[in-house]
Structure to design on (239 residues):
């Protein structure tokens, strides 16, 4: 038998990590009884409810979107700002694998497979992510070397990165930044560490996955071999 948080994640309600939060917040019932233990294993055929709604198992689906600018990676917003759900129309209840900031564009994976999502975003799995960055300033050679070797942010040292300058002007420069982790606002915080501001940020790639053929807001189904390869790469990096 699977643990309750895995069952919830497999039903497409949320990632496994989010499912654990729901359990701890006492928002989950099994056969009418509130469950707050993360190790609980429901019996086969048990009625499981989240926030009073019975969950149903869904077919696992996987999509990649070219996230448009000024869009939230949530299903809804209290201020009626645009969300990714305004662009994608599928019957399953899907969520983004990790998040991009409101003003950040580019590669965004969406799924209802909590196990897959956890594999892709878990801190111990270091999938390559490539960002196109434009900042209000020009990185010096010393700053580039420091960024590549690792800088100390408030939540610890960053892993080694790669920087490739693509354009340089008097007070602005653009570069590609390759990182192998996915901390909250990591790219922006790395830039802010040197006193600069990010003017434009686009996630160009996650591993081999790009969205050059998709317009902002467009999405497509991930091919089975792409899902397998992403999972394989993540597991290899996690060893």
């Amino acid at each position: 038998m699977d643990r309750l948080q895995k069952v919830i994640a497999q039903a497409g309600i949320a990632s496994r990590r989010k499912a654990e939060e729901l359990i701890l917040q006492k928002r989950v019932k099994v056969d009418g009884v509130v469950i707050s233990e993360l190790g609980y294993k429901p019996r086969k055929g048990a009625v499981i409810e989240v926030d009073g709604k019975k969950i149903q198992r869904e077919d696992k689906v996987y999509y990649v979107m070219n996230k448009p600018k000024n869009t939230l990676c949530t299903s809804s917003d209290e201020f009626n700002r645009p969300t990714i759900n305004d662009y994608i129309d599928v019957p399953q209840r899907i969520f983004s694998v990790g998040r991009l900031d409101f003003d950040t564009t580019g590669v965004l994976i969406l799924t209802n497979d909590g196990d897959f999502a956890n594999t892709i975003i878990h801190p111990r799995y270091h999938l390559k992510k490539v960002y196109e960055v434009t900042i209000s300033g020009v990185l010096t050679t010393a700053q580039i070397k420091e960024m590549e070797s690792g800088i100390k942010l408030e939540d610890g040292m960053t892993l080694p990165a790669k920087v490739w300058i693509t354009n340089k002007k008097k007070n602005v420069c653009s570069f590609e930044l390759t990182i192998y982790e996915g901390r909250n606002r990591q790219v922006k915080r790395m830039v802010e560490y040197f006193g600069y501001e990010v003017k434009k940020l686009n996630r160009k790639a996650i591993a081999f996955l790009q969205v050059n053929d998709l317009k902002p807001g467009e999405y497509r189904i991930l091919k089975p071999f792409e899902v397998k390869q992403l999972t394989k790469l993540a597991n290899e990096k996690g060893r």
About this structure: The first helix runs from residue 4 to 10. The chain has a mean pLDDT of 92. The radius of gyration is 20 Å. Helices lie at 4-10, 16-24, 114-121, 141-149, 186-192, 224-237.
